[in-house]
Protein 1
Amino acid sequence: MLGQSISKNSLLLGVFAIVTTGVIAATYLSTQQRVLDNIRAAEERALLEVIPREQHSNSMLDDSLLIDDSELLGLRGPRSAYRARNENGDVIAVILPATARDGYTGDIDLIVGIYRDGNIAGVRVLSHRETPGLGDKVDYKKSRWVDGFIGRSLTDPDTAKWAVKKDGGIFDQFTGATITPRAVTEAVHRSLRYFASHRTALLNEEDHHE
């Protein structure tokens, strides 16, 4: 009787352990998927702020390519660039990742949207550790300063003017803070240079001719 009781209890404990493990695993997988879905939604919102949904017909998150460039884009590892396409499948714009390594308190990660004609569609800073009330104005939640890049290109202004006003350029700096806007301005300019150098690959023009 004692042996049967022990066996029965062991069996019950085994079943309980299996069921508990299953519940925990199911909860983890469900939570993990929700986290991934939330990250994807946040990424998509950022992309759509640069290239609005009405301007393209594809899912940019599903039309990406890995880029690893430290010289012009300042990347510290591979990151995704995204393509926006029209109804005919032609790439109308590319959203490039970039990192300004010379921010006041460290790296400033951003994305730069560039239309196929080389004009800037928009810029968003994704992460930074700049000083609140000063350098953090590069963040769209704090100010619309980055909108000053919209419509600009490698030739508008020319290279000498692609700088903050304190350095002889056309872009505003912030009162009491020049390092942060200078770093972002230079990163955006370098992104344009990268686009110009890699235009064919970025626009997927190897098999498509204008």
Protein 2
Amino acid sequence: MSKSKQYVESILHHVELNDENKRDMKEEFTLHINQKTKAYEKEGFSKKQAEEEAISEFGESREIGKELNREIFPFRTSFLILAGLSGLLFSLLVSILTFVFHESLPYVWFFIVLIANTSIFYFVRKPSKAASQRLILIILLLVIFLLNFYGFLLMDGLMQSHLLYYGLLGLYLSHALILFSQIYMGAMFQPVNVDLKMLSDQKRKTKLSINIFTGIIVLGVALFGLVGWLIFSPTSLPVIPLFLIFSWSCLFVCHLKIKKLENVARFLMIIFALFILVAFIYVQFASFT
């Protein structure tokens, strides 16, 4: 591999681009470097010297890559770092407080959460992997959300200390918001689904927003129900949580894949999610009265 190709690859190593955009960016950088190289050759430089001069004129590859990545994905790196740190802090505080108040340590959960949140920093250090392994990153962020949802349930025993409970709740909600903003950002600008790639930005935003936020509501309530089922009645069948998951999944597929049912599915997803949210809030308030 020539020095100019190595230089371009080094730049793109620090940029989060899918294969198609990476190929276009590589061609553009290579074209500019070749033009500069030919200009230096006309001035009397040897081919090797001309190539080195052209590369040095562009600047340090790491800094160019980082600056380019900031232009494409503003605050992407900062938010991923914040997601990892806030997740680690939340899991550490929940584990410590659970041990202090209940003399039990959820060490298995903490160990898994520790690994999951630390894995985010792999994609922080290697932005090109965040593009080539986009689906893995999205799944990782979803898994972290589910793991921390379990941590949120562990907080139930801390409600006697309102300051601690609401402080942890605020941290949990902030962390969840960061996670879903990064899922949205990745899916919006570099969709893993072929159907989404074909849509305009506005239509893609609409679809992703509805899919993500109805999914948070419906699947979150379903997960809450599944945890309650595991604790209180594991011998029975969790009909309602399974029904919620199945219904939302069917609407999700129709909304994403079946063009004729797209508008109907979108309307039903919104109504379904709002109904589940209202019902959940009503049940929670009723349990306190």
Protein 3
Amino acid sequence: MSAVPILLYHSVSDNPPDWIAPFTVRPRVFAEQLDDLVRAEVTVVPLRRLLAAIRGGPPLPARAAVLTFDDGFADFYWTVAPMLAERELPATLFVTTGAIHPPGGRPNGSVLPPADMLNWRQVAGLDAYGVEIGGHSRTHPHLDTLTNQHLSDEVVLCKHELEDALGHSVANYAYPHGYNSAAVRRKVQRAGWDSACAVVNAFSSTADDTLRLARLTVRADTPRSVFRCWLRGEGAPDAPTRDSLSTRGWRLYRRARARFTDQPPGRPDD
């Protein structure tokens, strides 16, 4: 069971809005991290290849990693994609469909604060180029606090919107903020999603749960030494892991708060 870092990025920018700045990596640092991957002889594989290995398919290279990006920031199109293409690295982009700009209009709505987001033409272009597009809900809520109908909207309709826009099926989902529960995972599976990424801040592996894949969050303040440790399979626990008592308690608190407010508190470490 080899440790596989599924690296989670958000924005890659020199001038992010304040709300996403702690989760934004500067382009210069991102380039260094990609070069560190190459120098460390880590093979970046598509998410589907990790999933195949988990299900008993062809084994992964001795040192493998997966690149994922959440939300759908416009800098993926202008900054990230060219860097990946230069190094011939695959990646999965999980988009919040309500934050994507439709042709000639404004986004359909999400709880994300204002930011420069992708438009549907760019999403389709990235898909055509070979970037895997996945779902990240419609409005980016805390899924584990929602009613059944609201949860269906965020899981099922997100899939329909992406498939209508791209003209083909989409397979992989990522939970906003990483928040999920047994009920959420069942809903995702029944909606036809093949896998789902959480956060967990642990290494994935061929023993991981395909509906709760562990990822490592790359933040603005992630030291290069820590990043290099991850590439060696060091510095984090291995999945699968169980929810801690604090995680379960935080979920109960957010559910209780959601009954009295429209928006659950805070942006977590996702």
